[in-house]
Fold:
Amino acid sequence: MMKKILTLVFSSLVTLLIVSCDDNFDDYNTNPDTTTTVTPEMLATGALKSSMLLGGDGKAYIGYNALPKYVAYIKEGAYDPQYNLIGSCSFASYHLLPNMEQMVAYAKGGDYEASFNGLAIFLKAFNAYRLTMMAGDIPYSDAGLGKKGNPKPKYDTQENVFSRILEDLKAAEECFSKGHDFNGDFIYSGKVAKWRRAAAMMQLKVLMSLSEKITLEQKARFAQIVAEGNLFQDNGDNMNVTYTIATGTWHPLYNQPLFDPWTVLSDVVIDEFKRLGDRRLFYYAEPSMEQIKLGKNESDFDAYVGAYPMEDFDQLNLDYLANKYSVINNRYQAVMDGDPLSRLSYAEQCFILAEAVIHGWIGGDAATYYRQGVKAAMKMVAAYDTKFTYCHGMPITDEYINNYLAGEAAFALTDSDRLHQIWLQRYLLKFLQDGYDAYMEIRRTGYPVLRVNTATSLNVDNKSALPIRWKYPADEMQTNTDNVKEALSRQFTNGYDGINERMWLLK
Structure:
């Protein structure tokens, strides 16, 4: 009897608890410290993090910079991009489009509608630009419509993609001109005036990428943007991802013992810095320990030795273990809030304008733009180490910059040599910043010339060539097969999705 009573009591308690839990389920299972609503500001922050390549591991960061031969990685065997092998691109940036559509919807009718609309349009164009530069034809008109019943977007021609990107960047600029400063932005703190300048500068960048295909109308558009004057004014307008000491926002190379000590500067970079007497070398590299033992000082240009990135890996490794090469500067390992990642910069804008003058797209003085670009690039690097802790006693000062521009880096006499100077400075500007962008510029200009080692090349389809495109994502081939095949057959002989195939931009 007692057992039955206890059983009934226990059952009643369980029932009471279940009912009580059901009645207050939401109260007990809701974290009071977690937001339950999404705001346009939150969506803006997420979209910017993804678009600006914030974070990422050290090896990925090195990989971005191995392809344009900024560095060589010597730890784990022959590294694919270092030896001219690239794979597929990613359409991951398109996953942001539904969120950005929500961002605009949540802001509709409010004071910040124009601002968030401008940001959404800008980021779509910004991300698509890189993607089309990598792969060729891509979805654009139909991109981001999966939730609206179109999970298989058609591919726009690259020519049309560029036209649409330019239209959208102009539209973004107009939105920012009507907008108000907003929250959720870690790039410009929501300053719409700066975003407007970024949209204008991005148009110049896109148009210069089209230099071999540019139309008279597009040249006129370039000149109009310059005449309007809503461009970057100095380094304070740079579109920078600024790293901090907060967890999750460190520089990708901070405290990376697997990568930092095993990453050496290339002979391309070091030899150019030495030829020019360019002190950026001392901010980027450590001296060769072999040269130090031979009596060189850390402040001597000759103490720095670059590696040929496509050298036989075993030989490269032996030379590294013999302390022959210069590894990247110790500050990358030591400083949490290291070099900001500059996705658009005043210096780059100056170099674009200098080139445009030489091409006859705009008036003005190419030499002035060139000198302004060099000065801005130098000051960007000097700002990395304001206390001169890691520059090996060779600081970049105003006096030094003036002497540099009067020496080997002085603007040349012929247009051909001037273009080579501009292209080289743009290449050096992107060191450990945006290697893919630098590589696309090398692809456009052919400068600087990158030596290819056919004996070590992993570009199996053409061992004597640099690869010129990324393949389409594997998941696209599986889920959007017909549209991918149509795009391939439209662009390339036999519809081959290869890394040596010439997209419209390069034909």
Summary: DSSP finds 21 helices and four strands in the chain. The first helix runs from residue 2 to 23. The chain has two domains: 38-54+88-229+474-507, 232-240+251-451. The chain has a mean pLDDT of 92.
